[in-house]
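Researcher: Here's the sequence for the chain we discussed earlier.
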Amino acid sequence: PTNCILSSSQQQHTHQKTLNLATMAGFLTSKLRSTALALAVSLILASNTNVHGATTLVDSSGALNKAIPAIPTTGIVALLTSPGTTGSLFPSGDGVSVESTDSGVIIQAPGATLESATGLATGNGAAAAGSIAGAVILGGVTLADAEVGLANTRHGRTLAELFASVVRSGKKGAGASLIVAVQGDGTDGGVDAEAITEEVEEIFESIAVAAGADVSLEDYFKVDAIMVKSSDDVSSVVSKASSAASGSSVIGSDKSFSTAFADIYNEINNAQTADPTPVAEASLACYDAYSRASRTSRAKISMLKHRVSRGHLVDNFGPNADSLMVRTLDLFDRDTMSAAGLPIAGEKRLEMRAKLQERTEKAIRELFVAQMSILEKLTLKKFNNALLRKMGKDNEDSKDLFENNAAALRTAAFAFEAKASTLEVPGLSLSKSKAVQDMAGKLNNALMTFPDSPAAKIKAMKKVEQTVSKQKKPSEGSIDFALDFVAMIRPDGFGNLQGFAGYQLGPHSVTVGVHNDADDPQVIASFGGVRPPFIRVQPKLKLDVEL
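Model: Thanks. This is the structure I predict for it:
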């Protein structure tokens, strides 16, 4: 068997066996390597706990073991493996077994297959194990299974049997943890936990409708999807499940573990699948139609979300969103038309249609809001860049900046309104009017605060630094001459007339002045009691030497 059962006498040899398995793996065939991997993982899971022995609950033929020893009824974890998954990180076996460890009780059971409809291949052993566990691990789920949808895989059949069992039991409020462990393929991709949760909810709802029960998945399980890529991830998942199941018990205090498991297993085997009535058949058709329409719209919306998450706008988002909404509802209506005339099924159809419409509208509204936010940021960024360019080109003061950029403000507002028009979704009342009003206020505020903005201050500071630190370009050495000729004419008078005239020719200049102060006593005194000369000439020679 591929699962490893450790007795108390084997505990001291666990470490040595792990090393031996790792050495032998290189010489085995591909099938034996998968078996060795499962053995190694099982040893790792048990390496930090004391295993108190393992017991077969149901053998590979589906026969129930009558001699089940006393097992604690709290802290039970059900590990539902997948016989059809090649190279699964979780160990798998042919029958249902239970082992009690220091961290709790682990029931290992094989899930359903799509090839057989007898024995444990139907998933009845996994359903019985999960029905009495405080935490359930669904292992062996691949990325390919997640992409095509769990409902169309062997895991969907396993979950259907489990959900049918817990719905029949009617024990609401248990709140058991259901962990879907998706096995990675070695790439850096992640897992869409929300999409997997929705898939699980759809499987549960279809089972509840067939059983005629008005219940929801939250009444029984808390779903979580986790990516596992290594044995460390497997150990982490098992530890998380053990913590979730610790201290909780689904089994009543008046029953032992063996009695509770045997009762549930026999109930599952004895459950008869009657031919569905027209109402139940129509209700199931509504759920199938809901699943198809939901997957189709979700795939399209995921593409749009990916583009928006990178900061890009979707071209013609408004018309495309309207078309997506119409196509999604039309697809659902076309596949559920037969249920419209039935009383119970008709109500269920309207309920499912409203749920489909609500989910699709919610996704479209989120995309609309996100794109409006992106458009606002892009518009403000372009407007500020335009102001910076104009600031560097024109030496304007603050007043001129406001007056001369009114046209730029109107241009930015018009561009925003035009682009926002393509995002409008009239069918959902998603209009641009409020966004346009908000954008006008933000543009005005950006223009008023622009001179004090950090970008404007940095631009002004850099310009000042460039002007101050500007250096003269190096040139060759030279010697330049210049002649300045200054003449002063002082005719008779007492200083009531004064004038100057000048002329410059290249580096040379001539300056002539007239002042009629020759008879002024103060002027005569300054010249030693004689009159000043009528004309005085003062030549100046300037020499400019540059090395």
